[in-house]
Design goal:
Elements (H helix, E strand, L loop, with lengths): L1 E3 L3 H12 L7 E5 L2 E7 L8 E5 L12 E9 L2 H10 L4 E4 L7 E6 L4 E7 L3 H8 L16
């Protein structure tokens, strides 16, 4: 589950106190022209993700904190995105043109997105965010949609 926040440290501190969450150290990143900072809880799965970035880009208007997406691993990103589009959940953003195998599909009923991430990225995720963690299940997609 991911939330955007205009102040990563304040959000981390508030949730650490209120919900007893522990956080991995934030990292800086860049996706195309968008700089961001992010972190994940240290006690997952499931993980809570926080992203701090300027307004615009794939995270929208981030001047106020808010829910952004639920993330899921997928066995086939293209097939998964096509399946969700077939259900009326249109693609809002794809990281694929930027070398990042993920996509956000908008879900009106939750006021946010579903994020599908290609399961081939899971080993790098685990190495960075949960080194002792076990592999997580992926949605098994059929390439025939």
């Amino acid at each position: 589950m991911c939330f955007t926040t205009p102040d990563l440290e304040t959000t981390m501190s508030e949730l650490a106190g209120a919900a007893k969450l522990t956080w991995q150290p934030p990292v800086h990143g860049r996706l195309a022209e968008w700089d961001y900072r992010m972190t994940f809880t240290a006690d997952g799965p499931p993980f809570i993700e926080l992203i701090e970035t300027a307004p615009g880009g794939p995270w929208g208007d981030t001047r106020s904190p808010g829910f952004h997406h639920l993330g899921f691993w997928t066995s086939d990103l293209s097939a998964g995105s096509a399946r969700l589009a077939g259900l009326g959940l249109e693609e809002a953003f794809s990281g694929c043109p930027f070398g990042r195998p993920f996509a956000y599909q908008h879900v009106d009923s939750i006021g946010g997105h579903l994020e599908l991430v290609d399961v081939t990225r899971q080993p790098a995720f685990l190495q960075s965010w949960n080194p002792s963690g076990q592999p997580m299940p992926a949605i098994e997609e059929s390439s025939a949609t």
